Amino acid sequence: MKLALARPARVLLVDDNDTDVERTRAALAYAKLAVDLEAVSSGEEALAFLRREGRYTHAFTPDLVLLDVQMPGISGIETLRLIKSDPALKAIPVIMLTSSCRDEDVLRSYTEHANAYVTKPIDMESFRSVVQRLEAFWFSVVVLPRGD
Questions:
Q1: Pick from 22-31, 79-88, 137-146: least confident
Q2: DSSP characters for 101-145?
Q3: What pTM, to 2 d.p., does this model score?
Q4: CATH code for 9-139?
C-alpha cells in the first residue's frame, strides 16, 4: 500500500541538535519513499512554521511532525500542547522523537495528545531502522488527513 498523495510526504522536524537533524535526513534519504523534510530548531520556530508566520508564510502543512522533547525556550511538550490546542493544527500527527526515556516525559506527551513517543537510538543503524519503521507505518499504513 502506498501513500495516497500525488506529492512527496511532508515532514516537519523540530530538533535543536544539528547532528540528530542530519541523522534524520540521512535515514529518510536512505528509505525509498519521497519525503520533503523541513527542519526547525525550536518550539517557537515550529509554531511560526505551522501557523505560516514571519519568514514561514509559504510553509507547507506537514503530514507529520517529528518533535524533540528537550529544547531550549518552549519545550517540545509545551510545543505539542500548543499544537494540539490549536483547532487549525490539532489534526496534524505529532510523534515525539527524542532521546528522553523519562517516564514523566512519556506520560506528559501522551497526556498532551502525542500520536506516538519514540526514543532515538544512539547508533546510526538502529536509528535508520526506527525512522524507516515510522515512515512505513505513517505513510504506508495510516490514513492521514489531507493537508494543502
A1: 137-146
A2: --HHHHHHHHHTT-SEEEEPPSSHHHHHHHHHHHHHIIIIISPPP
A3: 0.91
A4: 3.40.50.2300
Band (pLDDT 50/70/90 cuts) for residue 147 is low
CA distance 143 to 140: 8
Distance CA 37, CA 10 (A): 6
Dihedrals phi, psi of 41, to nearest 5 degrees: -110, 10
**C-alpha cell read off for 110:** 501522551
The model's pLDDT over 107-118, given as tens digits with 9 standing for 90+, comes to 999 999 999 999
The CA distance from 34 to 11, in Å, is: 11
